[in-house]
Amino acid sequence: MYRPDSKFVALFLCSSALLIGCGDDEATGQASGTGASAGAAGSAGSAGSGGAGGTSGAGGASAIPAPGELRVIEPGAPTICSRDTPFRYFVRGGDPKKIVIDFQGGGACWNALTCSVAGSIFNEAAPTAAAIEAAVKNETFGGIYRFDKAENPIAGFTFVHIPYCTGDVHWGDATVEYSADVKIQHKGFVNSQEVLKWVYANYDPDQILVTGCSAGAYGAIGHSAWIAQQYPNAKVSVLADSGCGVVSDTFFKESFPNWNAQLPTFVTDLQGKDINTLSIVDLYTAVAKDFPNVRFAQQTAAFDKDQTTYYTVMGGVEADWSPKMQQTLVDISAGATNFSYYLSPGPVHCIHPYDLMYSRTTGGMQYTTWLDQLVSGASAPATAKCDGAGCQDDAFCNACAAKTETDPACKWCEGWPKP
Description:
- The two termini are 25 Å apart.
- The protein has helices at residues 6-14, 112-116, 129-136, 188-202, 215-230, 251-259, 280-290, 305-313, 318-335, 367-376, 395-401, and strands at 70-73, 89-92, 95-103, 157-162, 174-179, 182-186, 207-213, 235-241, 295-301, 339-344, 361-362, 365-366, 384-385.
- It is built from 11 helices and 13 strands.
């Protein structure tokens, strides 16, 4: 649940030098580019005929951006960010039959202490169109956001990016006053579902990748059942990047009530269950069972520095995180035949935002080959993983230490390996 630095926020949110200008026409309820008056997502949005909203929704069919074009859409109520600032999302045009739905990461808060630390433990606001425009000028875009890179398995896809500004891993539907000075809009579920309504109204894809890094990984699995239900004939893959759900014994009980966490309780094995007692294994296996044709997957590093840090903040013991994480992956695999995972060595948190994904190899499998098979292959890829001492021997971190590697992901290698 990594909260990126400002430079990385720009990278993660705009993500490609090929994004064509953000325009100067960003405004509440509007999207850059040409919209339509017919609303596509209910009552949200009030842009009028010139934007992507219209008086009855967040966009019409003509609101689909052209290939390479970026749309910034601010739908208005009921969406909102944690401290009552506007929510907005981004769509980069591509093949309308191939779509990536990408949930942003950025920390979490769940009590008066964690929610009172403005901006340092979770993303509290959506980026502005100006920030996106500035990011376009930054040439440090990496990973899946290199839309022009032939080796990128999702090159040419339409890309829908759902920002995260509510501290609830995209699952919340609550307004909480933690103290006289701290009120948080935990509306991540509401925001994400409004984006998905727009997608449903505007696209009929054959192929979908649902993904997210860190806190976005939980958004991906949490909303995947709704997406799979909406598109029963599409090839759907769900890939959670560095969000394994290893939490303290009390975390869900402490956070879920405050968030009013919304999970797909229409899924058979979740019906009638107390979601406050569910584990991440329960969630994955239940959703995978109801959607056997969907490919579910995770990618994580064996000693992910950020996930380990959050685990200790929750009251866990640092040394326990990696074995618990690996057992979680084994347990999901045992309960879901349509689940596989990619376990990398070392401490790097998230692979998709970095060019590391183009060089990473684990268990003899190149990551981009594994990802391409997950998204487009005739069958899902098998699990690829490091083992034993090999999980501590990270060639990437070794190159960072030797100053022969300059990928921004090197920051995760500082202090690695531990004595």
